[in-house]
Amino acid sequence: MAATSGTRYDHEHAGPLATPRGAAPAGRVPLTPHPDRLLPSEPSQRCIARRLYDSVRDLPLISPHGHVEARLLADDDAFTDPASLLVTPDHYVTRLLHAHGVPLADLGLRDSADDTDPAQPRDVWRTFCEHWHLFLGTASRGWLEAELHDVLGVTVQPSADTADELFDELTVRLRKPEFRPRALYDSFAIAALATTDDPTDDLSYHRALAEDPSWSGRVVPTFRPDRCLDATGSGWTTALDDLAAASGIDTGDYDGLIRALENRREHFRAHGATATDHSAPDARMAFLDAVQAQRLFDAVRSGTASADDARLLSQQLLGEMARMSSEDGMVMALHTGSRRNHHPDTLRRFGPDTGHDIPLQAEFTRALQPMLERFGTNPRFQTVLFTLDETVFSRELAPLAGFYPSVYLGAPWWFLDAPRAMYRFRDAVTETAGFYRNAGFIDDTRGFCSIPARHDTARRVDAAHLAGLVAEHVLSEDDAALVIHDLHDRQPRKAFRL
Length: 498
Hints:
The chain is an alpha/beta fold. The chain has 2 domains: 43-77 and 179-496, TIM Barrel (Alpha-Beta Barrel); 78-178, uronate isomerase, domain 2, chain A. The protein is 47% helix and 8% strand. It has 21 helices and 11 strands. The strands form 4 sheets. It has a 4-stranded parallel sheet, with helices on one face. It has a 3-stranded parallel sheet with strand order 3-4-5. β4, α9 and β5 (219-220) form a beta-alpha-beta unit. α1 crosses α20 and α17 packs across α18. The model is unreliable at 1-26 (pLDDT under 50). It comes from Saccharopolyspora erythraea (strain ATCC 11635 / DSM 40517 / JCM 4748 / NBRC 13426 / NCIMB 8594 / NRRL 2338). Its EC number is 5.3.1.12. InterPro entries: Metal_Hydrolase, Uronate_isomerase. Pathway: Carbohydrate metabolism; pentose and glucuronate interconversion. It is an enzyme of class 5 (isomerase).
């Protein structure tokens, strides 16, 4: 006997169950995130975790690395609709729907190989709502529920039956003054927000915010020079030309390129930047002498170099970034271990950052030794290391951070910013490096409304993890309360020099 659609069925007793008291009619399921979500199931630990979580739940948010643009806050334009806000720009969402056969164009992404327009926002939202169940068990589901319920006031779950109703409700709500970007920034209690910016950016939106007497928030740029450092990329020479135009320095030789990069770093520092960010294939850096570097640059620039030469030049330029950080004090955040744009056709048609970047195996001990030999004990140098390879947490990263004063452990990032992965990270690194070689939490998001949801998830996970240590008498509850406060306030400020 099969259960009919919308009927709860008890397979053990082979009979339909009564509809729970207070349940919504079929097709209208309440959206009610549990107040104890992610906290331990064991009652005594849950009580400890509640107290720890309550002690930090309202702390101001420190967001030292993310991809929200300063323009959003400078312009302060109202969001137009929920699909454009929550679905189309979020590759966590689009990649999973794509895995289930939903074309990216149906999610609002423009296909350069097709002259037709992508799906309209209402249709995108319908598609998302019809596939809501696919996010069960994922970190994205928790974030989306928090965004919808806690930020946007939604009280029913997305579904095929509620899609149009929710679209209309949210479209009207997003036009209200309290849901404009600056009002949301204030309601999120963000103390500092770092954007991620190309070296050629004039930072006019950051400047506009800083000069706006009605704005009291803190938004700082982050220097992201990847396209100028990646000599293996087809767009490298164009990037150097753009850098020359922005800096006013000829990048036709190696020395000019280095001076142009230094010039732009200073421009960023003048606009409040405290960090650089690098998404390198791996952590290897080279430190060639000036003659070797110029010879290598000339060969790559002229198109006569081998692929290995281009990779070596990229590693040399990354090494120059470490050298510059040791001199100007900008924190060097290093994100490694991803095979970017794994599917060439998707890259060609829809561009980068569309969900097909895949983790790779990482290695740090040998790769970073030349850099740390030079700068690892330099008091002006500081680096935050991120990886997508969990196997190096305890084997390499924790021992490195447990010796070098310049090395901080980056939070679990991207595919690893999920609750269980956060647990594994804490278990892997804490016994070797402690809590205070950690950079706290980063949200690393393009989705503005997901910032508080992601930070709340991290605070709940840390409360649960620390509650277990308190229950095992590894920490006192007072110590745990100090640690969780520092992980979400002191440590990100210190690691990113905010």
